[in-house]
Every structure is written in structure tokens, then in C-alpha cells.
Design a protein that fits this description.
The chain is α/β, with parallel strands linked by helices. The chain contains 11 helices and 9 strands. Bound molecules: guanosine-5'-triphosphate and magnesium ion.
Length: 302
């Protein structure tokens, strides 16, 4: 007597799109965890963020990526290389488009994105996001029809990553599209990236929220110590790297109030993430023009 082995499916799913369209919000909605940082400012994500979604029969390995743009400095070139590498290993490509902006423009077509997609052999799914904010929802059907007529997309769906509408339908669609294959990761795993990475990102998220103009873009965070202790608080030390002395002064603020604000907000977010109390120490360091300096970029892991 033979017992039938159920077929499993497994796919690497690249999440790509222009900056600020809701790629990271979508990843978090699918995984059900704040894995990828989200802010109202464009260019929040700088590195790939991996999130694993496993059902009884399918494993989807999502990779959130930086928003696609024309690179103006070294760091942005590295960001676009991350997008390219992610596309190269994708079994399915999810292209996220801001429905509000597309409706204003009257088209989902994008002169920067489409040439990138035309070269690809992996099936592409168009995701029209932010539907909750679209004033004329019925007219968004025109955009979906455009996607169908373009011949570029295997499927198209309108969702809201922010409130979760049709996110489960998108996930089922992706499971169906996935090739047969064994799971690559333990079904319990949500990500493969180390805690240090998430901690650094949470600090960066706070800086993005609390500062304006070029400060968020001129800032990188490097975790220099991460000590898990058997007793008491864990110790985390991080360098906040900026490009100039003037930026350092702004970040620290009068009598250190700026940096203290970042520290206490980031500590709360980190404790929530690690489910452990931490002692967080932050140091602001100037590394001249690091965004454009190959050696500095390499030492920051770009
Ligand atoms: N109304 C609405 N806002 C959304 C939705 N999804 C994301 N947002 C908002 O859009 C902004 C950008 O979201 P992110 O998830 O950071 O976008 P992203 O595409 O990852 O951006 P980058 O990492 O900068 O490329 C945030 O303010 C989100 O709250 C949605 O479905 N509806
Ligand atoms: Mg993002």
C-alpha cells in the first residue's frame, strides 16, 4: 500500500516597484510581522528584506527591495544592484504600483519599470496597491484592463496592503503560480536575516520619522555590539553614521535632546521586536561623503 506524498510548491517572489508604493507594507502584511521598515518618505528600504510565508503545501520566499530609481550616488547604485540580483533569482515577480498615482496619471505604464520587466522570463503579477485611498474605485478597473492588454503580466489584482484587503487572495494566487518543489526553509521561519539587521533598520526607521530634508538619506546605522546576556538587559551599541559635522549637530540636537529622543523611541521598538529589555547606546559618527565612497560603502555592507 502506498501513501500519496502531497506535492509541495516553493517560489522566490521578488517584490519590486517605484519608491513609496507600499512594497514593505505588503511584505509585512503577508508575513504578519513588522519585518521591513515603513515610513511616509520614499527610499526607506535600502537592502533586500526576506520574509517567508509557509502554508501546508506551499512556501513563498518574498524579497522586499529598494524602490527603483535612477541612481545619483554610490549607495543608490548599490540599492539598484540589490533589485537586479533579486530579479535574477525570482520565480515570480510582483510589481507594486500606487493606484492613486496611476489613476491620476491615467496609466499604469512606467517608462523606468517596463523596460526592466520586458527582459524577464519569470511570470509577473501586477499589484495595484493603496486601493483604500482611491477615490473612484470603479474606474480603477480600467487600470487592471490596461495591465491585461499590455501582455506583460500573468495576473493583476487590486489590493490595500495597509488594511489587508485582498492580500490573502494575492497570496493564494502566488501559491497557485509557484513551481512544484520542496520547502527551502523550516516552516516556522519568518526570515533568515540576523537580529542585528532588524535592530539597525528599526533605528533607521526612527531617524526617517523624526528628521527631514537630507538627514534620513545621509544617515546609515551600524550595529557595533549586540550582547545577549543570560541575566538583565541585553546590550546593543550602534553607530549612526552621517556625512557632515552639520548633520551630526542636527541629529544630536540642543543638549543632546535629538539623540535621546531617537534612543528612547528606537529602544521601545527594539524591545518590542526582540521581546526582551535592552540597553541601547547610540554614537553619532561623521564619515565624509560615505554615500559616494566605495570603501566606506563596503565597510557599511553595501
Ligand atoms: N493608503 C495607503 N497607504 C499605504 C498603503 N500601503 C502603503 N502605504 C503607505 O505608503 C507609504 C510608503 O510605504 P512603504 O511600504 O514604506 O513603501 P515602499 O514601496 O516600501 O517604499 P520604499 O522602501 O521607499 O521604496 C507609507 O506611508 C505607507 O503607510 C495602502 O495600501 N494604502
Ligand atoms: Mg520599502
Amino acid at each position: 500500500m502506498s501513501t500519496a506524498v502531497p506535492t509541495t510548491r516553493c517560489a522566490h517572489v521578488a517584490i519590486i516597484g517605484r519608491p513609496n508604493v507600499g512594497k514593505s507594507t505588503l511584505l509585512n502584511a503577508i508575513i504578519g510581522s513588522h519585518l521591513s521598515i515603513v515610513t511616509s518618505k520614499p527610499q526607506t528600504t535600502r537592502r533586500r528584506v526576506l520574509g517567508i510565508h509557509t502554508t501546508d503545501t506551499a512556501q513563498l520566499i518574498f524579497v522586499d527591495t529598494p524602490g527603483i530609481l535612477i541612481p545619483r550616488y554610490g549607495m543608490q547604485e548599490r540599492m539598484m544592484a540589490e533589485v537586479g540580483d533579486t530579479l535574477d533569482m525570482a520565480d515570480i515577480i510582483v510589481v507594486v504600483v500606487d493606484a492613486v498615482k496611476a489613476q491620476k496619471r491615467g496609466t499604469i505604464e512606467d517608462p523606468m519599470l517596463w523596460p526592466l520587466l520586458q527582459q524577464r522570463t519569470a511570470p509577473i503579477v501586477l499589484v495595484l496597491n493603496k486601493m483604500d485611498a482611491v477615490p473612484m474605485k470603479r474606474e480603477a478597473a480600467v487600470l487592471i484592463e490596461q495591465a491585461r492588454l499590455s501582455g506583460l503580466f500573468a495576473r493583476a489584482i487590486a489590493i490595500s496592503a495597509a488594511d489587508g484587503t485582498y492580500v490573502a487572495d494575492l497570496v493564494s494566487m502566488l501559491c497557485e503560480m509557484s513551481p512544484e518543489g520542496p520547502f527551502l526553509y523550516d516552516p516556522e521561519m519568518l526570515s533568515t536575516q540576523p537580529e542585528r539587521f532588524f535592530v539597525g533598520e528599526l533605528i533607521r526607521e526612527v531617524i526617517f520619522e523624526r528628521f527631514r530634508d537630507e538627514i534620513p538619506y545621509a544617515t546609515e546605522v551600524q550595529i557595533v555590539e549586540f550582547k545577549e546576556r543570560t541575566q538583565g538587559k541585553w546590550y546593543i551599541a550602534a553607530d549612526i553614521v552621517v556625512e557632515r559635522e552639520t548633520q551630526k549637530a542636527i541629529l544630536i540636537g540642543a543638549q543632546g535632546t535629538g539623540l535621546r529622543g531617537v534612543g528612547s523611541q528606537a529602544r521601545e521598538a527594539i524591545e518590542e521586536h526582540l521581546q526582551h529589555s535592552v540597553y541601547l547606546e547610540l554614537f553619532v559618527k561623521v564619515r565624509n561623503d560615505w554615500r559616494n565612497d566605495r570603501t566606506q560603502l563596503a565597510s557599511l555592507g553595501f
